[in-house]
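I have been asked to look over a protein record a colleague put together. This is what I was given:
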Amino acid sequence: MEEVVGKIWDKWITSQVTTDHVDTKVHFSELQSQLLIYYRAMGGDGAKSIEMAEKRELNIHRSTMQKIAGSHKQFYVSWQDERSLRLPPYIALFTDKNLNQSLYFWLTALAAQLDKQRRSAQLNTHDTNNHDANNSGSVLNQNDWFNDNQQATCHLITEYAGLRRLYSTLAHEVLRLRSIEIDASLKKQPTSSLSHHLFKGDFFNKDNDLEQAEKAIATVLKIPGVINQYPPCSKDVLPVPLWLYPPIDVQGQGANFDPMDEKNNQKNSKRKPGELQEIEQRKKAQYADDNRKTDGLLVFQAEALMTWTEQINLDRCQSDEDDDADVTQIAKDLDIISLSRHRKANAARIRFDLDLPAAAQDDLRLGDGILLPEWDYKQQRLVDNACVLQTMISDDVEPMALSSEYQKLSQDILALFAHIGLTPNRRKAQPSGDEIDLDAWIDNFALPVKDSSKQAFYIDTQHQNRDVNCLILADLSLSTEAYIDDKQRVIDVIRDSLMVFSEALTRLGDDFALYGFSSVRSQHVRFHIFKNFDMPHSDHVRGRIARIEPGYYTRMGAAIRQSSQLLSQRGGANKVLLIITDGKPNDLDQYEGRYGIEDTRQAIVEAKLLGLVPYCVTIDKKGHDYLPYLFGSNGFAIVSNASELPRVLPKIYLHLTAVH
């Protein structure tokens, strides 16, 4: 009975303080692709993605009812950092659904304008490093937040008439809602103007600094740019839905936890799309003190432990029985996730899985490694000797003939090549050629009278003069362990593609090489040779391809740089660097996020300067978010059905090299 009454009470008290309009709610997932295109079109940073924001704590003035309900402590606010733009997972602020949708586009345009302001400021300063530290990813102070949003708003409503009308409507509605919030807090009848209360001083005491801050916000929402100093105050103002907030201040340095844990990926693949979107929200982190000497004894009053977050930090080694626990829901309930630097129990097992294999079980390492540079986008320069690339080859490989399954698939591809006239043409009974035609010689030998002037005992193989060199670079990262269906993993599809594609290229007559890569931080980028340009395509090459297994992480820039050097040394006019991958660049260190994206883009720019044609084929359905920035609008292809990659890859190659 108590539980029933409690649920009824909770439902009623929540309904009294909620301000969302459920019937007009607009979800971020419905507009994500449109917003990304709009963001790019408005001049936003090409390396950024658009993701869902998490709730943020704001210490606002709350009414008695809100305090009883325990609400209005956290809010979805929009913000951005050097990696991405974060927007609320849904907007239900207005009674008009079109206004809720328009607010998404306004925030996106504002973010793009703030990016342009930052880039402009960087061009006007000589101290680039210091400026980046103050403007890229750091937490801005309140005065910066106050002025930057005003400046961006002024520019948008001045330059774009459509946005000026949109902002006027949105600002009017936001001010009306803020006045209702204040009136509700004071238990007064709502008025149409926020300034009615603010400027008469009856929202707060006259000596309260929050009153001045609310006055300033209301004023600049009406007329952006009229106030350039944010009044200092001890509390936060009501959320400003028309502005972007500073980035979240994450306490402590990031630990090297695996962002692409295999088990999490497999669990997430079974979830519904809506659940995945909620999981992708970022959480605030804080580090717990691991060095306490009192661990092992926990004393508390059970009735006082009300929420997940009201707990005592306690080391708890996770056992195998806990592997099936649904920790996702717990993580969603947590406001702050506490992290430990201990490497015991489950963390130790992950570390063991990621250890490099012993030399006896590993591929043969060729040399001591190659020092390669990396692009530091904050410094806007190449950092010499930033990573080490280790060339490797399988020395103990069993030769493998082409299986019947691969033969059938290869025949289908070769039929396509023959249909468009790209396979070599063998002409028998020729006076000269590449090999002896025994049938023609026997026929001539059987004649009773032989004409020595008409001897034609050779087969002449005529090749198309394509003059194409192609280097295929395959992503062998840990994520390729994921299953695309009940039978096949991503790595299986990549293996099949290389097996069939190499047969097709051999028959086509194009010179080609096959390489794969993965990485474990900057000092160990693994660069596997399956076939270089000088090796003939043979059973040994097929054996190396058959042994392909998932590696570690995706330090794509180093692999592209080494591949570009190898390909640029080839003769001929047409050189294609074909990259096969399943996701964006990442690694355990700073390569995760913006750093990896920028370094990969710079490596592609360097490849183009060498006269190469870099092209990416991916099965990542989110590739549209970042591939145009990396390869250009015509430099990539997304294969929606991963299992079709072996059949689709040759077609993409033919289209790519058709002009040759």
Q: What stands out?
A: The chain has four domains: 2-222, 262-354, 399-403+467-519+528-656, 425-462. Residues 444 and 450 are 7 Å apart (CA to CA). The chain has a mean pLDDT of 78.
